Every structure is written in C-alpha cells, then in structure tokens.
Batch of 2 targets.
Target 1
Amino acid sequence: MMKHGCVPNSVVYQTLIHALSKTDRVNEALMHLEEMLVMGCTPDVQTFNSVIYGLCRANRIHEAAKLVDRMVLRGFTPDDITYGVLMHGLCRTGRVGEAKALLNKIPSANIVLLNTVINGYVQSGCFDEAEANLYDSMLSTGLNPDVFTFNILIHGLCKKRRLGSALELLSRMTEIGCKPNVITYTILVDGFCKEGQLEKANVIINEMSAKGLSLNTVGYNCLICALCRAGKVQEALEIFSEMPSKGCKPDIFTFNSIISGLCKVDNIEEALGLYRDMLLEGVIANTVTYNTLIHAFLRRGSIQEAFKLVNDMLFRGCSLDEITYNGLIKALCKAGAVDKGLGLFEEMMRKGIIPSSISCNILINGLCRTGKVNTALEFLRDMIHQGLTPDIVTYNSLINGLCKMGCIRKALNLFDKLQAEQIYPDAITYNTLISWHCKEGLYDDACLILGKGVANGFVPNDVTWHILVRNFVKEVNQESRNLSYAQF
C-alpha cells in the first residue's frame, strides 16, 4: 500500500493491530500504534484495548497500565473492556489487591468487573475476601449478583472442600431469584465427585433433572472419573453408554477415564477395544491415552505389546513424553536389558526431552542391579555435568550396588559425600549399610553406623532391628557351634 502511494487509514491500522495483539505479536502491535499516531491517524478506544489485551496476555501488566495512562492523557476515556482486560491481567498474575484498587477508581463499575475481582480472590485462595466483595462492593452499589457471581463463589467453596457451604450458597442463590444453570450444578457434581461422595453427587444430578437441566459432557466426565477411581468401572460404563441418548458426545477425557479404570482392574483387552472405538468415532488419542495403556502392559510384563502401542502412538503423530520413556526404560532395566534402556534414554535426550532425576534413577538402579556399578557412577557424573541434581534415591542405588560388589569402603565414601552435599540419608541408606556390614561380619561397624545415624536424627525402624537381631542371633549360633566343635 505504502509503496503504491496509498496511505493506510485508521481502519487498516486497527485491523492489523488487533490481529497482531491476538496472535501474541504485541511488540509489532505497539510499533504500529506508534506509527499510527505519527501518521496522524487517530486510534479509537478499541485499538488501545487490543494492545492492552496483548500486553496482559504476555504478562506485561505494568506496560498495559502505563498505556491506559497514555490513553487518558491523549483525551480518550477507557471503557469497561479496557478496565476488564487490565483487571483480568492483574488478577491472573496474583495482583488482586491492585485490581481491587483499580475497581474502586471506576465511577460506575458493572457486574462483569466486580465478578472479575471476585474471581481473582477465589483463584488466589482468598475466599473470605471474595465473599466480602459480594456484599461490600456489589450489594452496596445496588448491583444484584448474577449466576456468574454465584458460580465463582460456589467453585471457590468446592476448591476449599467446603461442600456444605457451597450447598447453602446454592439455596441462597435461589432465594434471591437467581436461577442456577448447568455450570452451577456441574461445579457441585465435580466437588462431590472429587471427595468421593457419589451419592450426594447423584442427589445434585436428580435436582438438576427436576429443574429440566441435563448433565453436559463435563458433568458426565466428573461422574465417570469418580466412579473409575472408586473401582466402579461397570457403573461408569453404563453411564458412558447413556451419554449419546442424552445428547452428549464423549470426548478424550471421557475415554481416558474409562480406559484408565479398565486398566486398573487389569481388563486391558476391553480398554484396547475402547481405544479402537474411540479412533473410529474420530476422537484423537493423546499422550495420556497411550501412557495409560502402555503402562498397563508393562505392569503385566508384556513389553512387546507395549512397544506395539508405542509404534501406533508415533504413527498417529503423538509424541512420547518423559512418562512414556520412564515406563519403557524401567521395564527394560527390570528385564535385564539395561543397554536398550540406555539407548532409549539417549533417544529421549536427542528429541529434546530434558530428563528428570526420576529417569536417571531408573537407569542407575538398573545398572547397579546388573553389577555395572562403574558405568552407573560414570552416568552419575554425566548427570551432574548436565545440571541434574542427584537425590537420596540415586545414592541409595549406588551404595547398595557398591556393597553388593564388596566395595564397602567406596560405599562409605559415597555415604560421606552425600552428607557433605546436604542430602540427608534415610532409613534405606542406613539399613543397606548396616545389613552389608553384618553380612561381612563387621558387627561393631554396623553398630557404629547405627549410633551415628541416631545421633543425626535417624529413627531405626522394624527393618533395622530385624537386620541386627537376625545377624546377631546368627553370629551367636555360629559361635556356639564353633565352641561345640572345639570341645568335641
């Protein structure tokens, strides 16, 4: 346009600024806003709102607030959207107090702005402040709370597990003539389901039905997930089968809940059947779906079946994540195929997945169990070099591996090292060292380790005493036999 001598007008700039802000290219949006002002094109409030929205999405709240000040200096009057976007940004970044201060400056705040602040308090876990805003700000200004206000507060109470108070608020809501909607009831159903109170959840569902409302897909998902968690998979399947007749289409969350429930009761064949049905219905399986099925096969020891699913997962364009890799690496290490596990670990790193200490601990444990302790120690050095911090689980595997090889002195050196690194030994560490010292007949040293541990706050458990008593009895019996032979 510019090259052809066609000067962009306000509409062109506004369209471009809005699109850039919406697609998180807010720096370009700001540049075009400045250019617009230089070119003598007058932006409107909506143009400023678009940039403020983009800045808030990028968590650049301070810059957004400064832009509002610039608006006012240029003679523009911020509207409800301006304040709403800014307040939402403040609340989302935990600055609810600032959002409340901004609300107090607005001459005629509406219900939406009040709901934004109330929601900010609820999300920050400050329910009492949220409720105070309902009465102090809303009722004092003559505004009546709407269904969104009550839904926010009911959700807050459910999050705090105050389900009785949530039901009281539902009653109060109907008393003032505000009708609960499907979302209100879904929040309550979800709250009771998460607490495992399925009977009360059903009471809510019946109340919904009496008022001519039906569960939506989210509501069904809450109920199905709770039933599967409680081991009532058959009931979950019955509810699942009634969804289409109620006008609800099962989504990926529905299928994942039931597949998980079936896998937990070791009904993998039916879970696989449901997975195939899901694909036929056009629901795309995600990483959660595959990880659930893969881990179910791995628990059964069916590594080949698990890898078939991995291939299917990759074929359908679903990437493996750390959970997938950890499950496969652990299964291979357990089966003695540690080298294959190491190969998968390297593949994971090549794909840009940064391993956690869990991944490393699985491999270190596998290497130590197969007697490759030196390789495990080299792996530990690489792990530290890459910025990963070993934990007590790492050291426990290595200490046990070294003791198993008869390198008790090296194990004790590692024990001293972990304490120097401010990693505190646990019962497994002490019991491992005490047990191996006893096996080597070093009873005095075993008692010395126990004494030092107790002095450092270690509380011996049943296993500790069992190790010591069993070995001391064995030693006494051995001494008795040797004495008898000597006398004979």
Note: The chain has a mean pLDDT of 89.
Target 2
Amino acid sequence: MGCCISCFSKKPISEKDNVNSKIKTHHHRHSPSNGKGAAAFAGDNGGGGGVPVFSEYSLADLKAATGCFSSEFIVSESGEKAPNVVYKGRLQNRRWIAVKKFSKMAWPDPKQFADEAWGVGKLRHNRVANLIGYCCDGDERLLVAEYMPNDTLAKHLFHWENQTIEWAMRLRVALCIAEALDYCSTEGRPLYHDLNAYRVLFDENGDPRLSCFGLMKNSRDGKSYSTNLAYTPPEYLRNGRVTPESVSFSFGTVLLDLLSGKHIPPSHALEMIRGKNINLLMDSHLEGNFSTEEATVVFDLASRCLQYEPRERPNTKDLVSTLAPLQNKPDVPSYQMLGIPKHEEAPATPPHPLSPMGDACSRMDLTAIHQILVMTHYKDDEGTNELSFQEWTQQMRDMLEARKRGDLAFRDKDFRTAIDCYSQFIDVGTMISPTVYARRSLCHLMCDQPDAALRDAMQAQCVYPDWSTAFYMQAVALAKLDMHKDAVDMLNEAAALEDKKRAK
C-alpha cells in the first residue's frame, strides 16, 4: 500500500489501530498475486495447504449442503453396473464440496467403506481434488471431496463452446496428472480406477486436478471401469484386475485425448501410432499451433503407455520425467490459458448471523453493496460532525455541493466522477464523513483499485471506530488483494460489532 494510514489521516489513529497495524504489516508483506497459475505454478508441487482434515460428516450436514440431494445439484452420473451420482454442495461454512453417493448395496460393510475412505483421505496434494470426508449412515455411503468449479477435461476438450485448449495447457494437464499419479503411488495408493478425461478437473484457478474418487472402487466387489470397454487395459479384460501398469495404460488414453481432441479408442490410435502418422492424429482445432517436436514426445509416450504387455509400460516417475521438460509457459496462469475469469475468493462466513451488508460483502457482491450504501444514505454519520454557525461559510457550501455531485454520480454508478467529487469534499477537511470514505472505497473497488479502497475503508474506521460498514469494506478490499485470512478476520469483526449494537 504505498504509505501507512497515518500518512494521510486527518484525525489520530483510533483505539483499534492494533487491527490496522496488523493489516498494514500483512499488506506490506504480501503483494497481490495473479493466482496460483503464474510463477507459483512452476514450483507448486507440495502438499494440499488449506485443505480441511479428513473427517466423518453427518447425513444431515450433507443433505443440507445438497438440498436433500436435489437433482438440481447433480454434476455427474455414471455407471450401470455400479451406479453412482456426484452432487455439488455447500457446507454451512460456505465451503463448496463434491459429494459422491453410492448405491445402497455398493459397500454393504460400513467398516470396510470407512477404512477405504480413510486410506484415500490421508492423501493431500494440490494436484488432487482431495477427499475431505465420508458418511456412513444406515444404508448411505457417501464421499466428500473438494469441489472443482471449472469443469472436466472432457468438457474443455470435447464439448468446448468458446475456445479449445491451447497446446501449452494440454502439456500442463498431462504433467499435472502424471504428478498426481506419482504422488499417489509414492504414498502407497498406486491403483487408480477408470482414469479418463472425466476424472481430470479444473480448480478455481484453472489448474488441473485428479479426482480423488478414482482412488476408490465404485463398490466393494464391483467393476473398476465404468467407461466403454474399448478403452480399458487388455489385462483387465482378461482377469478383471487393476494394476499400476493398468493405470499407465489409461494415462496413455488421456494423452491420446490431449493430442487428438477426440476420444479415440486405443486400437484405432495404435494404427496411427504404428504408421507414425502424427499429423493425422493431432487435433485440427489447434490449427497447427503446436510444436511437432513436443507432440512427437507425447505421441511416443502414449505409444509406450498403450503397450499390450504391462511390463513394457512406463511407471509414474517415467511419465513425470518425460513431460516435465516440455512445459513451455510456466509463468502463464492456467485460468488465462483456459480463457476463464480469474477466481475471486469471497471471505468465509463469520460465526454470526449476517446482515444484508455482511452477506453482500461475504459474497463480494459489489452491486448489492452499492444498493445498500445508496439506501443507507448518511444516517450513520449522525453525531460525527457538529458545525458552528461561524463555520457555515461559502467554502462549506462549496464543499457540500461537491458531496452532492458525488452522491448523484454514485447513485448513477458513475464511479470515477464520484471519486473526483468525494475527493474535493475530503480535501477541504472542514467536515469528516465516514460515509463518504465508505462510498469512495466502493468506487475504488468498482474501478479495480483495491489499495485505495482499503485506505478509504481504514480511514472510515478511524473516524468512526465502531462502525461495522468500515470493517466490511476493509474485508472486501483485503479479499480483492488476495489477503483472505485478514479479510475473514475483518468480516468477523464487522459481524461482532453489529451483534454488539443490536444487543444495546
């Protein structure tokens, strides 16, 4: 933030300056990032930080999160022999989740299901959509995982609407999934059931993740593959068993998908591979925008993965070591390459009932905040300024005229004009209005100026130390600056102030 708040205060720092100094320290230490994709992507191979510990959920929790398992919340449905459904849900703490619901008899023994779930739940990696819980209640068997909001690889490859996946992103997907498989293998979970383009998901930043659901079978004794048998490893057709080498075969089918942009049965693709006809295999939607040398490496790796004899296929470490040198845009965020908006994370809901202002701020809904500030007008400013008759000068009238012009511009959503007019009002300094600071803070947010928005919200707090709106506006600005922990703290502080005011 260019300078500390004391540099531009017209009044002394309030009693709550311990909160401000905490924000100031954090803000100087954390510059706004451009998401997990950029430079962070290149070295981002560690554990899944920020993921909840694995735990057991009640059926009531999951019913509430999914609207009683409403069909409107279904995000995928598959498998005739071992039917299962995946729902999108939202917990009370506002965390989005994916809930996989098994058929009643898929896992008759609750202990066996729980043991399997706990085994997968120990894994934590940011290349995996991690398993965060399970539920065994009566006949119900459910898994709870992190929710990935940006669809599957299948959607982006086969059913895209705006743009196909560019070549560099396809290479990134291949490497990320190889890294996920290698991590799982290293942690003692080498078997992945039915790896395909529907099991590859994109998180809020557009980074590829491997669904944790494939680390568990669809049932205790059920089939491990629910997709067309034309894509299954030959040894599975012989004996019905999945081995680590079977996973390499399935990874080869995903490589074919990435090369061709189509779901080609391996037998057909092998004919092209044997004929070395790479151009015939390549996705025409790439329009030639790929490196033939890189495509040849992927082409050859797919060929090795699809070998009939399992012992001739590469292991997961081979997959990673082959694909890692091909990464050619490590500093470009994934969301940018996918052509999706940058993720803006809303602060989590505080443990207090939210007012309309609190709810709007927790959702980062700037339009709703604007409507509330327009409706509230200046009622919260009462008592913050008492002017004598002698102060009622022409300068004072000019200043109030500037505020009036700012209010009109604010109402009409002309936010840049509002900033100019409110600045004229503030710069005179005769009258200090927390509402003007809050309104100008929102104007700065609307103009994508979160630093300036945070300064104004902090100044509003200095003028009116117990004003919840000042804290709410700081929460939104901090979230825009990717300082999410501080944003949650501010949201909680604001809600607590509202509770305190209601209790009086």
Note: Residues 1-45, 386-391 have pLDDT under 50 and may be disordered.
